[in-house]
Design goal:
With 120 residues, the protein is α+β, with helices and mostly antiparallel strands. 40% of the residues lie in helices and 18% in strands. Strands 2-1-3 form a three-stranded antiparallel β-sheet. Helix 2 packs across helix 3.
């Protein structure tokens, strides 16, 4: 077994992300002492997506944020995209349903291969 150093990565996944290449790494914690600062930044960035009851809502998010623990930036980007994909789809579907957002509909179709028709 080969030892691999793992770090914590704070990542931003835009709603328009088509894959890991679109994920931004905002901050890296290379030690456990740096983790509280990274986590505080994570909470600050997600604060707008909480409802009045204090529950996080993916449909209220402007971007998806996540913390992943892995051994490199490319792996962190891929894991962040994979972990956020369900929330991305939910958010985009909500935008189509509530606001008839043509851009969200296009992203769902072209990136996620999901056709939406909420006119019924």
């Amino acid at each position: 077994m080969m030892y691999t150093e793992k770090y914590f990565y704070l990542c931003r996944v835009p709603l328009s992300s088509a894959g890991a290449q679109d994920v931004d790494i905002l901050q890296v914690a290379e030690s456990t002492e740096q983790f509280p600062e990274l986590f505080s930044k994570y909470e600050e960035l997600r604060a707008h997506a909480f409802n009045k009851d204090g529950l996080y809502s993916a449909v209220r998010a402007d971007d998806m944020y996540c913390i992943v623990r892995t051994s490199g930036k490319d792996l962190a980007k891929q894991q962040a995209f994979d972990d956020s994909k369900a929330n991305l789809v939910t958010n985009l579907q909500h935008r189509v349903m509530q606001q008839n957002d043509k851009n969200a509909k296009s992203i769902l179709s072209k990136v996620h291969e999901i056709e939406t028709d909420f006119s019924a």
